[in-house]
Amino acid sequence: MAEKIGIFGGTFDPPHLGHLILAVEALDQLELSRVLWVLTPVPPHKLDQAITALEHRLAMTQLMLDDYPHFELSRAEIDRPGPHYMLDTVQVIKNQFPDAELLLLIGGDSLRELRTWHRPAELLDVCQGLGVMRRPFETIDITELEEILPGISKKVLFVDSPLLEISSRDIRRRAREGRAFRHFLVSTVFDYIQEKKIYR
Predict the structure, then answer these.
(1) Which of 30, 32, 69, 170 is deepest in the core (most CB within 10 A)?
(2) Does pTM surpass 0.90?
(3) What average pLDDT is seen over the chain?
């Protein structure tokens, strides 16, 4: 039986409990054997934003994953020059795990915007499925997407996730303002942020 691998990409600036819960729910509901956390050095859609140094994001993400044996940090984007498009990243991972079934884990917002991604039809072809993380009471109509990206409805697998209003941006803002943010993070990531004085 082929191994089922989830691909979970992000800037992880910082990685927080929301990320962790979504990945755990995907692992459980999609019956994945592992989830690869793909840390993006410079996302193409965030070129105009200040992003924390890669070494810190790498360290924080690894600290968060240390207690989860089914989670691994992937270097699929770290070890190659940008720009980093998901199509190329999935192809790199496919070369690493040629016999695996690959499921790209994305949010409902990303599903709606998939048509604007780099060569989305090819991305659909190279993935066996899209694990779409859906919030409570959220309905997503993919009939319109099906017209633009034929076959997408057969690839979408919904993952029901709890409603968590946690964002990396809010955590960074709270840290800058000297407000509480410890409760959004695993303790090792919080300690790292404090020690390195990130987001001050």
Answers:
(1) 32
(2) yes
(3) 92
